[in-house]
Amino acid sequence: MTDERADARAAAGDGMRGRATAARPAEEVLASNRRGLRRQRWCSDVYAAAALAALINAVVSRDPVMIVGGGAMMLVGVSWTFTTNIASPADVVLTTEAVELRRPLRRSVRVLRRDVTAVHGSIAAHPDWSDSVIVETAAGSVRLPRLGSSPARVVVRLQEWADVDARPDGVAIHGESDHDG
């Protein structure tokens, strides 16, 4: 591809169905659980085939107990598919101005860069042991759940991005003291 064509594609939105990329700031996905959910989706197909076979067998044999059981299997399969494919996926996305927790069917959580006072793991001073990331702001704290990536990696990246420390000024962690003595 020539440089002129590459520049033209970038200006036109890089083939993203009419959406221009210039209007949206650069994004970095820090953590996502979509890969783990993809591994579970094949189970949905196997379960759906087994439930459908059980329901067909129940209808053919005209056994009311098997029909209720097959219907219950189908209901469980539909709810499981809904949970793994629609309700559970989440991404922690970092832009130049904010960090966002994006989840389908729920409101996204957005913390502006200028509001961040500290970033640390749920186990203070041990981000490797943590199961979530805590972003402290003047208005309170926001918990970002563990999503595939190590919370330690997310903590370090968010601290670099916001140019903050692991704790707000004046707050001691695990018996640390700010005074000499």
Describe the structure concisely for a colleague.
With 181 residues, this protein is of the alpha+beta class.
Largest sheet: 4 strands, antiparallel
| Number of separate helices | 4
> How many domain units?
2
Number of strands: 7
Cα distance, first to last residue? 66 Å
pLDDT < 50 stretches: 8-22, 172-181
Second rung of CATH, namely the architecture of the largest domain: Roll
**Beta-strand content estimate:** 15-25%
Rg, please?
Answer: 24 Å
- Overall pLDDT confidence: 76
Helix content: 40-55%
Instruction: Give, in order, the helices and strands.
Output: HEHHEEEEEEH
Instruction: Name the CATH superfamily assignment of the largest domain.
Output: Pleckstrin-homology domain (PH domain)/Phosphotyrosine-binding domain (PTB)
CATH T-level topology of the largest domain: PH-domain like
Strands across the major sheet, in which order?
Answer: 1-2-3-4
CATH class of the largest domain: Mainly Beta
Shape descriptor reads elongated
Q: Give the helix/strand class.
A: alpha+beta
What is the topological layout?
Layout: H1 3-11, E1 27-32, H2 34-61, H3 64-87, E2 91-95, E3 98-102, E4 109-112, E5 116-121, E6 132-137, E7 140-145, H4 151-162
Antiparallel strand pairs: 1-2, 2-3, 3-4, 5-6, 6-7
